[in-house]
TrEMBL record, chains A, B:
UniProt subcellular location: Cell membrane
Family statement drawn from the similarity comment of this UniProt entry: Belongs to the Casparian strip membrane proteins (CASP) family.
Protein name: CASP-like protein
Topology of the protein relative to the lipid bilayer: Multi-pass membrane protein
Domain named Casparian strip membrane protein: residues: 38-165
Assembly: Homodimer and heterodimers.
Length: 180, 180
C-alpha cells in the first residue's frame, strides 16, 4: 500500500481573533481607546454613571414632596433605569477584564449603543424637566421656603453628571459601530 | 539627435473626485443616503427643523407671560438658535443642489456634526424643561385657568418635533464622519 508521508513545515500560527469577532487590523487603534466596553476606562465610566444615578435617586426619593410633581417622579424612574443599566454593564466590563475577553463584536456594540442612547436620553430629559421646575421654584417663584429646593437641585445636578458620564460611552460605541 | 517618439495609447480617464475631497470608493453608498448634506432629503430635514423651530418661537413669544418662567425664556432662545442654524444649512443645501457640489469633505462634516450636536441638544433640553413646567401647571397644579397652557403645550410640542427632525441630521453626519 502506497502512503504519502508529508513533510512537516512549521508555519506561523494565525493571530488569535476571538472566534472571528475580533477587530479588523486596520481598526486596531480602537482597541486601546479607554472608555470602550471591556477597558478600565469603560468600567470607570459605568461606575460613575451608576454612582451618580443612584445618588440622584436616593436624594430625590428621600424628599417627601417629590411625588407631587410629575417631572420629579419621572426623574426617579429615569435614574433608576440608568443605574440598573450602568450596573449591568459594569458587571459585564468586570467579567471581560477578568477573563481578558474582547467585547467589540458588532451585535454587542449595537446593543450597547442602542441601550446607552435610550437610557442617556431619558436621563437627560428627566434632568432637564427637573431643572425647569427647580429653577421655577427657586428663582422665578421664590418658593423655596415651602419646598425642598436644596434636595431637588442636588438630585437634578447628580442626574446631569450621570448623563455627562453616559455620553462618552454612547459616543465611543456609536463611533466604533460606524467605523467598522 | 535621438528622440524617443512615444506612441499614444488611449487610457481611461480617472473618475472625477471633486478636488480630492470626494467620498472614497468603498464608502460611496453614503453618497446616496437621503438626509446627508447636499441631498434633497437633507434639505427637507433642514426645512422642517426650521419651520417647527420658528413655529415654536412664534407661539411662545406671542404669549404674554412666557417671560415669567426661565425655562420658557430659554426655550425661545434655543429655538431661535435652532431656526437660524437650520436656515443657514438649508441655504447651503440649496446652493449645493443647484451647483451639484459635494458637501462631504471631512472639515465640513465635522463642522456640521458639532453644530447639529450643540443646537439639537439645546433644543431638546429647552423642550424638556418647558414640558416639565407645562405638565406641572396643567396636570399637577391644575392652574391652566390663569395660564396660557394651550400655547405653552403647543410651543413645547413644536420644539420636540424640531429636535426630532434635527436628530437624523446629527446621526447621519456623525456616522459619515466616523466611517471615513
Amino acid at each position: 500500500m502506497n502512503m504519502v508521508h508529508p513533510s512537516v513545515h512549521p508555519i506561523e500560527a494565525p493571530p488569535f481573533t476571538d472566534g472571528g469577532a475580533g477587530v479588523p487590523p486596520n481598526r486596531s487603534w480602537m482597541k486601546d481607546v479607554q472608555g470602550m466596553p471591556g477597558t478600565p476606562g469603560g468600567l470607570a465610566l459605568r461606575f460613575s454613571q451608576f454612582v451618580f444615578a443612584l445618588t440622584s435617586l436616593s436624594i430625590m426619593a428621600s424628599t417627601t414632596d417629590f411625588i407631587d410633581a410629575s417631572a420629579f417622579r419621572y426623574l426617579v424612574a429615569a435614574v433608576a433605569l440608568q443605574s440598573l443599566w450602568s450596573l449591568s454593564l459594569a458587571i459585564v466590563d468586570i467579567y471581560a477584564l477578568l477573563v481578558q475577553r474582547c467585547l467589540r463584536n458588532s451585535p454587542l456594540i449595537s446593543f450597547f449603543t442602542i441601550g446607552d442612547g435610550i437610557t442617556s436620553t431619558l436621563t437627560f430629559a428627566a434632568a432637564c424637566a427637573s431643572a425647569g421646575i427647580t429653577v421655577l421654584l427657586g428663582n422665578d417663584l421664590r418658593a423655596c421656603k415651602d419646598n425642598n429646593c436644596r434636595s431637588f437641585q442636588t438630585a437634578t445636578a447628580m442626574a446631569f453628571i450621570s448623563w455627562f458620564a453616559a455620553s462618552p460611552s454612547f459616543i465611543l460605541n456609536f463611533w466604533s459601530l460606524a467605523s467598522r
